[in-house]
Amino acid sequence: MRKFLQTFICILLPAISFAQETWWVKPDSLFKYVQPMASIQLWSIYTMNEKERLVANGPLEPVSNRLNFSARRARLGFKGNPYKNFSYFLMLHYDNLGRDRFSATRAGVNDGQVGVIDAYMGWKISKKSDKAILTFGYFRPQISRESITGDLIANSFDKSLAQSYIRQHMVGKSFGRALGLNLGGQKTEGKFGVNYNVGIFNNNTTGPSTETAGKYWSPLLAGRLALTFGDPEMDKYSINYNVNFFNKRKGITVALNGTSQARTDVFKYNHITGIDVLLNYNNLNIDGEWFWLDRNLEGTKFQAQTGHIRLGYNLIVKRKIFLEPVLMTSVFYGDTGGQFKGEDKEYNAGINWYLNKNNLKLSLHYVWQDGHGKNGFTDGVSFQKGNYAGLGFLLML
User: Where is the signal peptide (predicted)?
Assistant: First the structure.
């Protein structure tokens, strides 16, 4: 009897194992479960001609020129592909550590807070192609190449001022993230490619509190359609983008962008439309965009326009010296009475030394700023940005 039971168990166990594998999805290798990521961008900034209101109801006054060291961006996170067609991405940030409040750079001050900057999952619906991929979570709605390009990838000293206006108009905050669902994909045939994204998102941050949009609710709808001629930008679909392909690409991508949101407690409707372009031809890198921002506040219409153009050229001086001189200009124009108004202008000239592509980089740039009205350059009352020279160091792991 004992031998019979042993024989029966030996026959039954493989059958049970086989049955389990027909019911459950098998995970992939352990390495793909959790892949750690870390990056840090250190800045040394010398600010000139900054003005601030130092006493209540007082005038704008010049503050001392100053040297400031800060961690502009510091990130720690994990990503993984635990199942063949399922992935996740989680990134924490502790940006702007050490930033002087009177620095001419555009950012807040961080006293040590850590927060979530990206947290999303991806499901590849079309298993044998990249035609349909669903992304769900906290991430950037897919409009504006400048907004959806990685924060650490920009070849100007910092991202253009245009992205801040686009993001704040769209989701009410400069980080530009929102919780939502996006369907996207891409298809490439020879030297022609199509990339698309359509998404629906919460838009709590434009309401009277961060918990609700208020009495009236309308989702944020966002979409982007990109056409590529020549070499593709990416081998696989992604919601993150690049600018410099280090002489490996000959191609141009042109994209149409748009968002729409109907009534909330803040506005009657809110729209964004625009176009962005990326051209890479061997050493040459050119990108730019132009966007129209529209909002209706109970019958009063406000409009603004913003955009940038940026030019970089890769120079290989000798072994291990890969330099890129860069020029950029970025502008904003807004109607009187809008959320932001007047003019905001930024000019950037500098050079990047790539020691290991975007993973290890040194940058030296000078930034001029000008404008009037009520915007990121000045509100006409409490601050006015100065110019600055910046030295940056980037390490991505």
Answer: 1-19
